[in-house]
């Protein structure tokens, strides 16, 4: 039997190398050079397969267990390959021509032969799996060639055999061919087992992290001495303990233990002490407080002189109760390198680029069991890692399908979470896992958890989540995080259940409570995490429920939370996310919202603000105007209507209708002074906006006085680092710049920029706007190099964060082009202006006057570089477009006509000639 096991154990390693050769296509030159080694390797592989085929045929123990046809096909395939290799073998007597021909033949047949080897090895794997499952030839762990199979009642119950001397010893473990990484943990385990205080070592970690597999690898030579007996017990429940013990005792012809008491391993430990003459190790796999009594275990170990106990558990609390802290190993998730290696080792299909495999293992939380199942899924469904992770993210493939889980069979929600399925708390744990997965589960602070844990039962459920590694410390203290894979599985399973609405609504109520406490000033903590929780809860509500499934009160709560979330996201520069979540919410609850007049119009008004922040002024104008009309009908002096009135002025300002903007701002200021008083932050907002409309009409003196009044008032009412103070400083800097007071303007913009970088961050839209304003001032002061450098920082950041078509992005690229032009860097100026043109065309289309202006500037820059033909092409196109849209008598059309004529004359003078014919020049 030893011979069979040894050969069978070599087959997966042979498969690993063969699959590696099959999946790797090196360059032709290297393949040609390695042709002799390749054929020698093939011969070694087939020699091993032929020996195995011969063993299958002559071993009498295999009779009747494997079909003769299967063995015949296996032998024939191996013999056929052997004959091919004899023809391809490069002999010492071969001449250079013969060697060349054979090498070419090897390269041509390389793929075909590799495929044949793969086919034979796969057939052998099936035979080996069948033989290992037969009672007559059990000689190793039933799962020796799989990574992390489904846990059953006899999983990892290792057989022991009676020696001639009557001493029991374990059959030698084979090294697991697909074992990857974790060398440091194996070294720690070896050290602890040699020097453990109390003779008990515990390996703790979440389900699927590879605890049993690590112990299995540890028990393989050379780590385990040959004279140590190992007795492996599945300690999941009292039933599995009894089954494992009695199965082992029957196998070595010893009497069974009559109904071992739950949690009492003393019977098997006493047996080991009396029968085994040397050292022994009792492995209690998947134990916890329900299946093993730590006190009895410790007491029995204290009387042992030869024994040690090695426990694997999912329960952290149990781990530290049965062993000293120095004897507990908590297993982390795999490193990304080990995770990618595990994926490659267990997939024979398509492991594509590093990026795809890295994305997949990251999506699976670096959990070995999930990675192994994903590798199997990729193999059977012919998918690459990139294809699989993309399908998982879009929902085209269910995570449950990849992990081979069937939610329809999970009547007990706790069965999704191994270790908790037999507890009375399984349903409560499942419910609150569902609730937490609706929130920002990567940032769960203690205040939030204490708000959720309003009853002893919920507190116990949260404690169990922490003990079973579902809730663990996050990298950003003091937060906890829900394990990402647990959250994904929770969403995949529990949102198919009837109680999903209750869980989602509970999450929404929690965040509404947190936001209400913040608004009342009763909660002194950072607000950012609360808004992230609210954002996640709103998305879960829109995704996993329907309007008809919830009450009108829930819809009203969602509208109120959505309004606050939208306001916050716009404030922190995430207006695109605000638009997305509010649009989802409006689509989800539009029927009920028609009766929530005031709340719904407030939400629409905030949506208009978000559209304005991303530069979509037309949509913002329509939404804000509609909201204002509805609010005026409800209560014209209500502060919601005043906000919308102010916002209408801002939108008119952005459209260049400065007089209308002044009218709206003046009316809003008048009403706000009546409602809030003249010294209120709301009043100062409108005062600043009115100053901007006056400034646009070149009424700089009035505008400056208003900006200074707003700045003084805000400094008096707000904290020194408030964003509104930096807004006033920025606005005052702009009006000073417009009056030519450049040094004063520079000072204002420098203070505003420094403050905004500190408070809002370097990539916030307002911060980038301040940096652009400072660059303009520096350029006007003659510091073009510094101005250009700042614009080269601002432009890409605006493009990334606000989008190419945002007005601020377009203006920044245009300003950068102007300063580069001044420095004589015409090509760089052209590149910058091309970016501005792309943004203008995306925003307005090709026929807009601003787009025409960008084309004209680009034609001028080409002209300055001496690229006359290219300049003429642009100018001619621009002339035709302006003639068609603006008419021949328009001044811009006349300007284009003159430019075309000038370029044509210069081309003629330089003898370049132009092949372009313009009908307009007739």
From TrEMBL:
What residue stretches are annotated with the NB-ARC domain?
A: 188-347
* GO molecular-function term, one example from the UniProt record: ADP binding
Matches recorded under SMART domains = TPR
Look up the domain of life of the source.
Eukaryota
Protein known as: NB-ARC domain-containing protein
Protein's organism: Alternaria panax
């Amino acid at each position: 039997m030893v011979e069979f096991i040894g050969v069978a154990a070599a087959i997966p390693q042979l498969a690993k190398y063969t699959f590696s050769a099959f999946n790797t296509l090196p360059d032709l030159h290297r393949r040609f050079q390695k042709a002799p080694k390749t054929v020698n390797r093939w011969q070694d592989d087939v020699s091993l397969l032929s020996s195995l085929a011969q063993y299958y045929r002559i071993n009498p123990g295999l009779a009747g267990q494997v079909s003769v046809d299967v063995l015949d096909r296996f032998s024939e395939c191996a013999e056929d390959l052997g004959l091919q290799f004899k023809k391809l073998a490069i002999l010492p007597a071969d001449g250079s021509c013969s060697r060349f021909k054979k090498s070419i033949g090897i390269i041509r047949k390389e793929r075909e032969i590799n495929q044949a080897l793969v086919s034979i090895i796969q057939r052998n794997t099936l035979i080996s799996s069948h033989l290992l499952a037969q009672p007559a030839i059990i000689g190793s762990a039933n799962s020796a060639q799989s990574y992390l199979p489904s846990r059953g009642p006899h999983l990892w119950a290792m057989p022991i055999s009676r020696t001639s001397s009557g001493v029991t010893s374990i059959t030698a473990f084979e090294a697991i061919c697909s074992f990857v990484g974790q060398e440091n943990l194996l070294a720690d385990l070896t050290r602890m087992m040699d020097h453990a205080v109390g003779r008990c070592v515990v390996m703790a970690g979440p389900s699927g992290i590879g605890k049993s597999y690590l112990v299995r690898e540890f028990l393989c030579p050379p780590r385990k001495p040959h004279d140590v007996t190992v007795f492996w017990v599945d300690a999941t429940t009292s039933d599995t303990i009894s089954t494992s013990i009695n199965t082992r005792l029957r196998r070595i012809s010893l009497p069974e233990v009559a109904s071992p008491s739950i949690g009492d391993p003393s019977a098997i430990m006493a047996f080991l002490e009396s029968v085994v003459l040397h050292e022994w190790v009792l492995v209690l796999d998947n134990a916890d407080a329900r299946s093993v009594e730590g006190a009895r275990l410790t007491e029995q170990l204290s009387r042992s002189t030869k024994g040690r106990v090695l426990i694997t558990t999912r329960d952290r609390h149990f781990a530290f109760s049965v062993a000293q802290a120095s004897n507990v190993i908590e297993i982390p998730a795999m490193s990304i390198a080990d995770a990618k290696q595990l994926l490659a080792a267990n997939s024979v299909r398509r492991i594509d680029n590093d990026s795809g495999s890295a994305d997949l293992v990251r999506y699976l939380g670096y959990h070995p069991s999930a990675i192994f199942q994903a590798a199997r899924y990729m193999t059977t469904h012919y998918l690459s890692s990139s294809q699989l992770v993309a399908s998982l993210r879009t929902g085209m493939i269910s995570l449950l399908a990849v992990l081979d889980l069937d939610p329809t069979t999970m009547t007990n929600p706790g069965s999704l979470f191994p270790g908790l399925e037999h507890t009375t708390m399984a349903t409560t744990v499942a419910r609150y896992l569902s609730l937490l997965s609706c929130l920002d589960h990567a940032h769960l602070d203690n205040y939030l958890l204490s708000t959720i844990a309003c009853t002893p039962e919920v507190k116990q459920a949260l404690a169990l989540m922490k003990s079973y590694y579902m809730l663990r410390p996050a990298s950003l203290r003091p937060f906890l995080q829900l394990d990402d894979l647990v959250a994904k599985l929770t969403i995949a399973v529990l949102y198919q259940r009837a109680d999903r609405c209750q869980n989602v609504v509970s999450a929404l109520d929690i965040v509404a409570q947190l936001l209400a406490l913040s608004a009342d000033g009763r909660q002194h903590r950072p607000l950012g995490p609360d808004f992230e929780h609210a954002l996640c809860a709103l998305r879960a509500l829109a995704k996993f429920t329907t309007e008809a499934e919830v009450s009108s009160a829930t819809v009203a709560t969602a509208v109120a939370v959505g309004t606050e979330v939208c306001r916050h996201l716009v404030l922190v520069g995430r207006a695109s996310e605000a638009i997305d979540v509010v649009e989802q919410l409006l689509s989800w609850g539009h029927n009920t919202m028609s009766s929530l007049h005031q709340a719904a119009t407030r939400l629409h008004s905030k949506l208009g603000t978000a559209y304005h922040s991303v530069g979509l002024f037309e949509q913002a104008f329509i939404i804000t105007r509609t909201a204002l009309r509805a609010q005026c009908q409800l209560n014209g002096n209500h502060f919601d209507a005043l906000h919308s009135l102010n916002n209408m002025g801002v939108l008119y300002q952005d459209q260049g209708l400065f007089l209308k903007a002044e009218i709206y701002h003046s009316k809003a200021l008048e009403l706000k002074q009546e409602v809030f008083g003249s010294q209120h932050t709301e009043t100062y907002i409108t005062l600043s906006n009115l100053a901007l409309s006056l400034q646009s009409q070149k009424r700089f003196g009035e505008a400056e006085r208003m900006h200074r009044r707003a700045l003084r008032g805000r400094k008096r009412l707000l904290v020194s680092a408030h964003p509104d103070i930096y807004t006033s400083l920025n606005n005052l800097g702009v009006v000073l710049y417009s009056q030519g007071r450049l040094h004063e303007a520079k000072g204002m913009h420098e203070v505003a920029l420094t403050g905004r970088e500190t408070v809002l961050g370097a990539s916030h839209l307002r911060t980038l706007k301040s940096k652009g304003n400072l660059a303009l001032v520096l350029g006007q002061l003659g510091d073009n190099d510094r101005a250009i450098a700042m614009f080269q920082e601002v432009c890409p950041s605006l493009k990334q964060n606000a989008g190419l078509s945002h007005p601020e992005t377009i203006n920044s690229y245009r300003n950068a082009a102007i300063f580069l032009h001044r420095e004589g860097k015409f090509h760089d100026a052209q590149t910058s202006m091309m970016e501005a043109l792309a943004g203008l065309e995306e925003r307005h289309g090709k026929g807009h006057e601003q787009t025409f202006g960008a084309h004209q500037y680009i034609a001028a820059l080409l002209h300055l570089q001496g690229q006359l033909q290219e300049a003429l092409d642009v100018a001619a196109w621009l002339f035709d477009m302006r003639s068609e849209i603006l008419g021949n008598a328009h001044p811009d059309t006349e300007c284009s006509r003159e430019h075309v004529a000038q370029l044509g004359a210069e081309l003629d003078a330089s003898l370049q000639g132009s092949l372009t014919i313009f009908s307009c020049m007739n």
